[in-house]
Design goal:
Two copies of one chain form a homodimer. With 403 residues, chain A is of the alpha/beta class. The first copy, chain A, has two domains: 17-271, L-amino peptidase D-ALA esterase/amidase (4-Layer Sandwich), CATH 3.60.70; 279-400, Ubiquitin-like (UB roll) (Roll). Helices cover 32% and strands 26% of the residues of chain A. The first copy, chain A, has helices spanning 57-66, 87-105, 127-138, 145-151, 204-216, 251-271, 290-302, 304-311, 318-326, 358-365, 392-400; strands at 17-22, 34-39, 44-49, 74-81, 112-119, 160-168, 171-179, 194-198, 201-202, 222-223, 233-238, 245-246, 279-287, 338-341, 344-348, 351-352, 369-375, 381-388. Chain A has a seven-stranded mixed beta sheet with strand order 10-18-13-17-14-15-16. Chain A has a five-stranded mixed beta sheet with strand order 3-11-8-7-6, with helices on both faces. In chain A, a hairpin with a 2-residue loop joins strand 14 and strand 15. The two termini of chain A are 21 Å apart. Chains A and B meet through helix 8, helix 9, strand 16 and helix 11 of A and helix 8, helix 9, strand 16 and helix 11 of B.
């Protein structure tokens, strides 16, 4: 059960971007698992990918294709098999899947970006691509974002998508994005498969800058289980159909909208975390620098003992001190630290507050949305990240995933 | 159920070290929870403690007392309450508990080292010490190691103790050690409460050197849940009763024995890890340096997805690649890496082995003791660490711990 998250009822289309999803039976039966996204000629694309060194074959190929200076025309996505840990053979399969599509669509192989998500360490079959891509080509249409959001799911329980419209110079720009992922989530660039499209015109290198900035405080500010996937990929497309060009002069409003869309998608992933019963915001304030604040926030967020206490709604704040104290930061001054659960203060300058009662703590922990706030009182930087709890259900899902 | 670990039937005494355990009802009812260890005059003591910056009051006090150059005469240990996150009041309580004992025993307060283990963030009551220490003093005897091992337990399911005898210059030296701990275990100096005694004579600074060396590949080579406790303390006592002095000249055989005792105690903690069903050895070989090898070994050992696959006996080796690939090391060359599960090779120079079958992997994963071996083929250093799996039972124990 995701925490305060429902699948969108519909997702606004973006001119110049069309999508389809078909049943290819790559691993799953009776549901769509092959998704195609087509970008109109003239669009630009920016991407960020996992930093996992055992990255999947499609990630390697995406990077290579983006480096050719061919502007991507198609994104080819399959769910159920990650094509990771598959060696040279896996890379060849990924290339061949691009070639099959390129031939059908009469584009260059390098104009196709491939993406895979699912089980690691199994060879991806090529047959389902050969058989089903013609149908996927036929069914491409602009009003298919929700269908695509469903088609890329693996252990996700709800489809994730958000949309936003902004006005620049009297023109409307539509931004729509979808994402999937609920386990193996601590993105180190982006999270497992997210696609955001907009109809503005944005020169490719500026689009990449905008994406990098948006990712820092969204996809790169979440963790479910500290495990960085081999397949994380986030693509931002500007289809250039809305007759507005984004430049460094009018960038700000566009940047804010992209930030918001990225943040909502990243939060949706945490809300649908495997086995999650809580959505947790961790704020670390008054730190010497942002990396310092992030290290403490992530140490709290990754701690299995903090996460099991969250699952139990147990105001066992000693575990928060433990996690703060074991963070790999220099010169932490525990006698300056203050700590809050929601609005309830637990610690002031390192000392437990006499006014704090277990009942207050219990009230905060009973909530589905919990904020943990740490003030270090040794600087002006802060960091905010989002995480989930660790439940029986997380263990069940991940002990049974392949069976 | 611990993995291939039984409580010792008896533990050999060490001349010059006497112990007792009494029921003080600090948190637990109907079991011993207050343990006293007395060291004969002339003995020396070395200690290592947690690097958690929110360290417990007794840890702060142990460090201070060891720095006074008073040779410790008593170790005072309670289970059920960690006296951590308790601020100035907690520190005062710890001091007062030492003073009560010091008065009874007619020693200086600084000759008492205090230790606490249990729930974090609750004030430790002083009354149980005042009431029960006289009885604990009366009951001190040398042949009480096993009783003490039971008295320091919290979520442990079996008492942990090992012993070894060595011969130096025709004289026998007895080394006996006990430990407790099964959750919040990734020691960063030592693990939650371990006490090792021997009857050799060892000058204090040499004893500390020997302990530091032994800890590196024992207590500092295990992780259960990546969470470093606020209370970790390991004490090595040399009672100087065996008429053998250890010096830098005859150190080696003694060092090896202390290493072995530390390693067996550290492994016992992992075998009794909360909810553990597997005992896992991780070897990372042919690394540029030891820190590099350790980072990869620990990343595998901490990964919730690797740990849930271990729990499920699922040869889902893609998760091993994921963990290796997300390790924070420079210049990892995935196309040089070979990987084994037990004797079964999975990967050769980054490529999946054609000869590998899922049945072989399953056979290895069905075992209770599993070895994961990674060869990086880029140097001559190696690291070995031990860990456990992540089970439903771990979540249950830690969601219910305070209730």
């Amino acid at each position: 059960m995701p925490v305060n998250l429902q699948a969108p009822i519909s997702l606004p289309l973006v001119k110049g971007i069309s999508l389809s999803a078909v049943e290819a039976n790559i691993r799953y039966q009776g549901r769509n698992d092959l998704v195609l996204i087509k970008i109109a000629r003239g669009g630009t694309t920016a991407g960020v990918f996992t930093l996992n060194k055992f990255c999947a074959a499609p990630v390697t190929l995406c990077r290579a294709h983006l480096n050719t200076n061919q502007s991507p025309r198609y994104l080819l996505i399959n769910a159920g098999n990650a094509n990771a840990g598959t060696g040279e053979k896996g890379l060849k399969t990924a290339k061949q899947s691009c070639s099959i599509l390129a031939e059908l669509a009469q584009v260059e192989t390098e104009e196709v970006l491939p993406f895979s998500t699912g089980v690691i360490g199994e060879q991806l079959p090529l047959q389902p691509f050969a058989i089903n891509l013609p149908k996927a080509m036929e069914q491409l249409k602009e009003d298919n974002w929700l269908l695509a959001a469903k088609g890329i799911m693996t252990t996700d329980t709800v489809a994730k998508g958000v949309s936003q419209q902004i006005n620049i110079n009297g023109k409307t720009i539509t931004i729509t994005g979808i994402a999937k992922g609920s386990g193996m989530i601590e993105p180190n660039m982006a999270t497992l498969l997210a696609y955001i499209g907009c109809d503005a015109k944005v020169e490719a290198s500026l689009l990449q800058q905008i994406l990098n900035e948006a990712v820092a405080d969204s996809f790169n500010a979440i963790t479910i289980d500290a495990d960085t996937s081999t397949n994380d990929s986030l693509i931002l497309i500007a289809s250039a159909q809305a007759d507005v060009e984004i430049t460094s002069n009018n960038r700000e409003i566009f940047q804010q909208a992209i930030n918001a869309v990225c943040q909502q998608l990243a939060q949706a992933i945490v809300r649908d975390a495997e086995g999650a019963t809580k959505f947790v915001t961790i704020d670390v304030e008054s730190a010497p620098d942002k990396a310092y604040a992030r290290e403490i926030a992530y140490t709290i967020a990754r701690s299995p003992l903090v996460k099991t206490a969250l699952f139990a709604s147990d105001p066992n704040w000693g575990r928060l001190l433990m996690a703060i104290g074991r963070s790999q930061v220099d010169a932490l001054e525990v006698n300056k630290i203050s700590l809050w659960l929601g609005e309830t203060q637990l610690l002031e300058a390192g000392e437990p507050l006499a006014s704090y009662s277990e009942e207050q703590g219990q009230m905060e922990m009973d909530k589905e949305e919990i904020t943990i706030r740490v003030a270090l009182n040794k600087g002006n930087s802060h960091a905010r990240i989002w995480t989930s709890d660790l439940s029986h259900e997380y263990v069940r899902i991940n002990a049974e995933y392949r069976s």
